[in-house]
Amino acid sequence: MNNLLYQVDDRPPPITTALLAAQHMLAALGGIIAVPLVVGAVLKLPADQVVALVNAALLGSGIVTTIQCIGVGRVGIRLPCVMGTSFAFVGAAISVGLEHGVPGILGSSLAGSAIMILGSFFMPQIRKLFPHQVTAVVVTMIGLSLVPVAVDWAAGGKNAGANYGDPTNLGIALFVLATVIALVQFGKGIISAAAVVIGIAIGYAVCLGLGLVNFTAVQKAAVFAVPQPLYFGMTFPVSGILAMALAYVVTIVETTGTFMALGSATNTKMKGKLLCRGVLCDGLGSAFVSVLGAPPVSTFAQNVGVISLTGVASRYVVALTGVFLAAAGLFPVLGAIVVTIPQPVLGGAGLMMFAMIIAAGVQMLSNVEHDKRTGLLIAVSVGCGLAVSERPELLAKLPSFVHEIFGSGISTAAIVAVVLNLVLPDRPVAVHDDEEEDDVPQPMLIPKVG
């Protein structure tokens, strides 16, 4: 039985839609801003250029998110899908940028996006590589990879130094976590659906009272700024294009897994043609944001956790999130205000959201056929994913292309699961095109709301 509060094509009332859209924005904004900040810091860019990267990333992510949700012709998956600058490209971007600067990053991103655009037309075939047991592994690994991010937030952030794990940080995070749990469990209607944003707002108010909010970023932010396309210029180094192309190949795998998780969260049959529209939007969107002056975009897995937790699957809600993100790109002061939210506040809410993805993956794993073959597939793929996720230095002495492919626990688990599914004996017969209609995703663990 479908227990979503709002279905994919539902249109909640305007005020409710705005509140729920803000919830998704809070979940995504930190990740979108982090990528240009990291790249800018490593390349030692001047402040004005870092600001230009951030504004372009927000505006581009917002526009592509709206297109992904609403759809334009054959482009866009038409599901509640948040797009943002992806850490999957950080390694390649830094390696290209150190040699060729930001123009090399953007030119390589534009040229490399052709891989994702072309790959989108083969999604019906790629979809066959993701039967239920493989999808369950990927969904579980998405959650397992995101939880450490929330833990770092709860502790004060990776850059907290001596304050990492400070009792005050942990206390705030636990308070927000308890608040979100209470709102989800005992709240009704919009109170339960908007539990994350309400919990963050309450946590933010507490931090204000304790004097823990730093408004320096707001004071420095411009009120209005229009990102200038080709502000940095573009160059097309062959080595950079190859590095980015490889990153796009890995992103296709990760995006496919995220779309499968999204299909399960929204009770949507994730057929090959639907994947084609979504991945095509990823590719075209990355080309667009490259021209705009930002690193490539991809589907954000953390927002699947918001849907799982709240039961709100309306694509119109997330389309408005895209509008909010674009506004943050045009009005940097808005994004700066959101950035003032202390990381422990985000950590308390994020731990709940990301753990919900793990719960969904565990439920999906419980529905697979329990035999020796499946047990091996799950154990080895999840183990390999955790190995590179928790000990990334494991790959430090291997060639750079190996690190690009297996640097993410999600992509590692997905690739290992796909390979084992193909090579282990007695594997199930592959799904044919005419059987895709019967491939109904298992429902996720979504708490009852309303």
UniProtKB/TrEMBL annotation:
Name where it mostly resides.
membrane
Keyword Transmembrane applies: yes
**Does this UniProt record's set of keywords contain NAD?**
no
Molecular function terms in GO for this entry? xanthine transmembrane transporter activity
* TM spans (from-to): 21-43, 79-98, 104-122, 134-156, 168-186, 193-218, 230-253, 274-296, 316-338, 345-366, 401-424
Compartments where found:
Cell membrane
Domain of life, source organism: Bacteria
Q: How does it sit in the membrane?
A: Multi-pass membrane protein
Gene Ontology CC: one annotated term:
plasma membrane
Q: Which UniProt keywords apply?
A: Cell membrane, Membrane, Transmembrane, Transmembrane helix, Transport
* UniProt record similarity statement: Belongs to the nucleobase:cation symporter-2 (NCS2) (TC 2.A.40) family.
State what protein this is by name.
Purine permease
In its UniProt entry, the species of origin is given as Massilia eburnea
